[in-house]
């Protein structure tokens, strides 16, 4: 590894990440906390493609340490105040259900939570079930991860004892982690039949069933965050509880999803039982595995261009599309668009970390930077682009511009 080269890449990615956070931060007139005010709101993209406060996008960007404390604390409080369901299940129209203490998919500027993708309606009609009968798994876990990120950079542990609607934040986090639709051992996330649940927002147009890899990876990381949070307040009993949960989830993920024949991880055990490029890279980034067989598979897919193009990553390998009309077994999106075969930069950093662990390469990060520079006038980094590059969506996209920096910084830190 050429450290000077890496330092240059990290500097460039940090500059891009800072710009992206700035581009995605808008002054909005809102009705949060029972008052009307103009405040900063971190949106998923610089073109306001998504006109609401999205929990997971903000949480993912927060891990960079580049969101100011005052803003990040406010985002945590918006979720705790407006974005978490109460103690009773909420039954919506069309058979949709919001479990106790579930976290919203996004929160509108009027302070009302929307629990399902595909709509801005916060009322009783939040869809007909195309995006699940339950809210996506990911936001419960990203809320926890966001709070942990805030504590890491602010050391404001007093917030954990702050009450939001008469419930202290630490208890709200435990309720969020408890979750819903888990397997018999209360470990992995499950979507089956009437419990149809999207695993996470970056594949919310994809239907899967059985045990779900990405949601379970997020639950693992949330368990690690809970372990860290309770270590900060010297609660040994709760710290050890979550440490044990994390290790059990880790082993179950390997036992359930790993395909030893190929080195890839399966996305689900039922519908969508396909090798998941993003989640395999995220499993490496999360510390689930650094098996050379896994790293070799990711490296080969990068080199033969079956997973990566211009630093952007496909969900499914190009030579493993489910059919001639869809990359995934079941998707609402057309082939080679959006979440069904397009290329995204959100997982670029996770993939880069895997390649670094295998052979010290950071080529994918330089590919991404070169593509961003060449397409800056078009609004790069994009949310996604097709193979030809003539169709793009989501300009100055938050996670595209920030997550590669997070991974590059980790690589540099490990070299020190």
Write a concise synopsis of the structure shown:
The protein is of the alpha+beta class and 416 residues long. It contains twelve helices and 16 strands.
Helices and strands, with pairings:
Elements: H1 3-23, E1 25-30, E2 37-42, E3 53-54, H2 55-62, H3 69-82, E4 90-91, E5 97-98, E6 106-107, E7 113-114, H4 138-154, E8 163-164, E9 167-168, H5 169-178, E10 190-191, E11 210-211, H6 213-232, H7 236-257, H8 277-285, H9 292-303, E12 308-309, E13 312-314, E14 343-344, H10 348-359, H11 363-374, E15 384-385, E16 392-393, H12 398-415
Antiparallel strand pairs: 1-2, 3-6, 4-5, 6-7, 8-9, 10-11, 12-13, 13-14, 14-15, 15-16
Helix pairs in contact: 1-12, 2-4, 2-12, 3-4, 4-6, 6-7, 8-10, 9-10, 10-11, 10-12
Listing every helix as H and every strand as E from the N terminus to the C terminus, the arrangement reads HEEEHHEEEEHEEHEEHHHHEEEHHEEH
Uncertain runs = none
Considering DSSP H and I runs of 4 or more, what fraction of the residues is helical? 40-55%
Q: How many domains make up the coordinates? A: 1
Helix-strand category:
alpha+beta
- Spatial arrangement of strands, main beta sheet: 12-13-14-15-16
Tell me the CATH architecture: Alpha/alpha barrel
Shape: globular
The N- to C-terminal Cα distance equals 12 Å
How much of the residues is beta strand, in percent?
5-15%
Give a written overview of the molecule.
- Helices cover 42% and strands 10% of the residues.
- The chain has helices at 3-23, 55-62, 69-82, 138-154, 169-178, 213-232, 236-257, 277-285, 292-303, 348-359, 363-374, 398-415, and strands at 25-30, 37-42, 53-54, 90-91, 97-98, 106-107, 113-114, 163-164, 167-168, 190-191, 210-211, 308-309, 312-314, 343-344, 384-385, 392-393.
- The strands form six sheets. It has a five-stranded antiparallel sheet with strand order 12-13-14-15-16. Strands 3-6-7 form a three-stranded antiparallel sheet.
- Strand 1 (25-30) and strand 2 (37-42) form a beta hairpin.
- The chain is globular and about 55 Å long.
């Amino acid at each position: 590894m050429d450290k000077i080269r890496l330092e240059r890449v990290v500097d460039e990615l940090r500059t891009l990440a800072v710009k992206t956070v700035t581009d995605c931060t808008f002054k909005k007139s809102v009705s949060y906390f029972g008052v009307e005010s103009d405040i900063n709101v971190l949106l998923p993209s610089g073109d306001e493609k998504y006109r609401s406060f999205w929990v997971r996008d903000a949480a993912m960007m927060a891990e960079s340490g580049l969101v100011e404390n005052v803003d990040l604390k406010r985002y945590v409080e918006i979720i705790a105040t407006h974005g978490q369901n109460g103690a009773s299940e909420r039954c919506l129209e069309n058979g949709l259900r919001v479990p106790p203490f579930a976290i919203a998919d996004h929160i509108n500027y009027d302070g009302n939570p929307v629990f399902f993708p595909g709509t801005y309606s916060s009322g009783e009609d939040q869809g007909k079930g195309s995006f699940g009968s339950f809210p996506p798994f990911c936001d419960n876990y990203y809320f926890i991860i966001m709070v942990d990120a805030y504590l890491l950079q602010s050391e404001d542990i007093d917030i954990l004892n702050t009450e939001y609607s008469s419930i202290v934040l630490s208890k709200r986090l435990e309720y969020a982690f408890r979750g819903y639709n888990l397997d018999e051992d209360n470990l992995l996330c499950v979507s089956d039949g009437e419990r149809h649940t999207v695993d996470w927002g970056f594949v919310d147009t994809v239907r899967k069933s059985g045990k779900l890899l990405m949601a379970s990876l997020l639950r693992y990381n949330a368990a690690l965050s809970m372990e860290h949070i309770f270590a900060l307040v010297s609660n040994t009993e709760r710290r050890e509880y979550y440490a044990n949960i994390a290790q059990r989830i880790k082993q179950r993920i390997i036992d359930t999803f790993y395909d030893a024949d190929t080195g890839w991880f399966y996305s689900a055990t039922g519908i969508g039982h396909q090798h998941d490029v993003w989640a395999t890279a995220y499993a490496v980034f999360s510390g689930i595995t650094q098996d050379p067989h896994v790293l070799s598979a990711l490296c080969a897919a990068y080199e033969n261009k079956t997973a990566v193009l211009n630093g952007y990553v496909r969900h499914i390998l190009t030579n493993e599309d489910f059919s001639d009309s869809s990359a995934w077994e079941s998707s609402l999106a057309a082939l080679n668009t959006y979440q069904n075969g397009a290329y995204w930069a959100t997982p670029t950093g996770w993939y880069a970390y895997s390649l670094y662990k295998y052979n010290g390469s950071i080529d994918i990060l330089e590919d991404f930077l070169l593509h961003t520079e060449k397409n800056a006038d078009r609004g790069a980094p994009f949310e996604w682009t097709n193979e030809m590059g003539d169709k793009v969506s989501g300009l100055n996209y938050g996670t595209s511009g920030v997550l590669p920096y997070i991974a590059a910084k980790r690589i540099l830190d490990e070299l020190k």
